[in-house]
Amino acid sequence: MYSDVNHSDIAGSSSLPAVSTSLGEEPSGVSAGRSVAVPEKEIEKTALLHDLPEELTLKIFRFLELRDIVSLQRVSTHLNRFIKNEHVLAKTWYRRFSLSHQYQLKKSLPLEDKELLRNWLRPFTKDQALIELLIKHRKAVYFPALFHFTKARLMSQYEKYNVDTEVVIAHEDRVNSATFSPDGSHLVTASEDATAIIHGQGTDGTWAKKGVISHQGGVRSALFSVDGHHVLTVSWGCTAKIYGQKIDGFWEEESIISHDRWINTATFSADSRHLVTASMDKTAKICVQGDDGSWEEKLTICHGGWVHLATFSDDSRHLVTASYDNTAKILCLRDDGSWEEKVTISHNYLIRSAAFSADGSYVVTASNDHTAKIYGQKIDGSWEEESIISHDQWVNSVTFSTDSRHLVTASMDKTARICVHRDDGSWGEEAVIFHKGNVDSATFSLDGRHVLTTSGDKTAKIFSKKDDGLWKEKCTISHDYDIRSATFSPDDRHVVTAGNDGKAKIYGLKTDGSWVKKAIISHEGPLKTATFSADGGLVVTTSMDGTGKIYGHWSNGSWVEKAVVTYSGPAKSTALSANGHHLVSPFRLNALRIYKLSMNH
């Protein structure tokens, strides 16, 4: 059996179970560190489960939790072998994530580069046989589940991580942002020195400068396209630039987008073929990448005031803009590649947010006129108002659930309202969440069964939907000062809150539906951010006290402090790469470090 990790028994934990690493190649009678208690021949005398077709057995396993499957491993060598050979634990763990997140996890893997895949695992195992055996499965449909599951399990075996500086990136002025590419192989920094710098990691693990993007003024932000092949930068001036990666690995300028005044936002579509800029010159511009790789401005959208928001739908075929003229516009992509304005949504005051449902069938706007408006797309492609949700004060935000059938509003009137799309096509209120202060945010878990709110009353609340369809308050998380953020983990099993009281609090979901405190991450100053890693196994915090902390699962299911990084002065954020073992954090106003996390014996 290939393994250099301790197979401790944490099957009773709702987190990640420790399992053998044979990957099903060599059946074994040992599971989770214990010998199988009942001989297979004796089991066969009293049980018929072994006689079921494999397809039916797999269907049964889809209804079980991880802990149940680990328990089955212990009572039968037949089931133990079957679970390993079919990678049931990895597949079950992977199904915790939404389909969209599974897609993101899959796309983050460098599937065509074996050496990069090896580098994803080497920091947390010396077992080269395990690595090579795992990579042999890379053409299989289940490989993303197996790979991410194995990596998360390996990382959970260590109570502490080593933190080593891999490279120092220096600018001549303040660094405004630092962002990893989706696969973690590149990093782009944006600085007040009028440059953005792209660094890439080679197969030998070293980081090197791959491109410098120059502007006339400071660079506010820089981000990668979803496919990681393009970078979009925005300056404090009136320009945005698109850079693309070439065959030799270096990055070159592909297009410049100009406005007459400051650009407020710029973003790529999910298919990475479109981008939109929104400007104070009262316009938004859509650019499209052609089949030859060049970028072309396709449409200028005009408003009567500053355009402060522009967002694509998940299918990249729709766009919504919002302006200080109190209107939002919905545009649709035609089959010939042109964009068409479909409808204008009007409010009496400023529109604070606008968002599409996951299926792209609905748009909801939130306004200072105390209302949220829902528009739906009809069969003929037109958009019509379907419902208005009224509050007594500003509506701060509105968010759809991933199934597009629910939405939740957050308002200054101290309430959040959960609404549902009924079978007759109407929208109706299902529940009202009350706070003692204004509700700053309200979001759904990815499975749509939980809602998390934050309020000016220094609390966050979790509401869960019961089997009878009713929503019930499950947990109140309290801080001593304002809560800056509250986030579900990608697998919906945990929540982390970040407070100005210098604490981040992690709560976990138990099998009985209750939420319990798992850990408190303490800092000496207010927190800026607290975020989960892509697999949900780590939480990274950033504080005004000059420290960033990494907490994660340990093999016994608890959350422990894995690593601490320090920097000079307050940092905006500390970011973790998709591979889970690269961390970027500023250590001076004009410089940052890329750290490598690795096993600590």
Protein architecture, described:
This protein has 601 residues and is mainly beta. It has three domains: 30-156, no CATH class; 158-205 and 485-601, no CATH class; 347-478, YVTN repeat-like/Quinoprotein amine dehydrogenase (Methylamine Dehydrogenase, Chain H, 7 Propeller). The strands form eleven sheets. It has a four-stranded antiparallel sheet, with no helix packed on it. The two termini are 21 Å apart.
Number of strands: 42
Structural class: mainly beta
Number of discrete helical segments: 9
Q: Please report which band the strand proportion falls in: under 5%, 5-15%, 15-25%, 25-35%, 35-45% or over 45%.
A: over 45%
Distance, first to last CA: 21 Å
> Which residues sit in consecutive blocks of at least 5 with pLDDT less than 50?
1-14, 17-38, 42-47
Tell me the radius of gyration: 25 Å
Estimate the helix proportion, in percent.
10-25%
Average of the residue pLDDT scores: 87
How are the strands of the biggest sheet laid out side by side? 3-42-41-40
- Tell me, briefly, the overall form: globular
Count of discrete structural domains? 3
Largest sheet: 4 strands, antiparallel
Helix-strand layout with pairing:
Layout: E1 30-31, E2 34-35, H1 40-46, H2 54-61, H3 66-75, H4 77-85, H5 88-94, H6 99-108, H7 114-121, H8 128-135, H9 143-156, E3 161-170, E4 175-180, E5 186-191, E6 195-201, E7 207-214, E8 219-224, E9 230-235, E10 239-245, E11 251-258, E12 263-268, E13 274-279, E14 283-289, E15 295-302, E16 307-312, E17 318-323, E18 327-333, E19 339-346, E20 351-356, E21 362-367, E22 371-377, E23 383-390, E24 395-400, E25 406-411, E26 415-421, E27 427-434, E28 439-444, E29 450-455, E30 459-465, E31 471-478, E32 483-488, E33 494-499, E34 503-509, E35 515-522, E36 527-532, E37 538-543, E38 547-553, E39 559-566, E40 575-576, E41 582-588, E42 591-599
Antiparallel strand pairs: 1-2, 3-42, 4-5, 5-6, 6-7, 8-9, 9-10, 10-11, 12-13, 13-14, 14-15, 16-17, 17-18, 18-19, 20-21, 21-22, 22-23, 24-25, 25-26, 26-27, 28-29, 29-30, 30-31, 32-33, 33-34, 34-35, 36-37, 37-38, 38-39, 40-41, 41-42
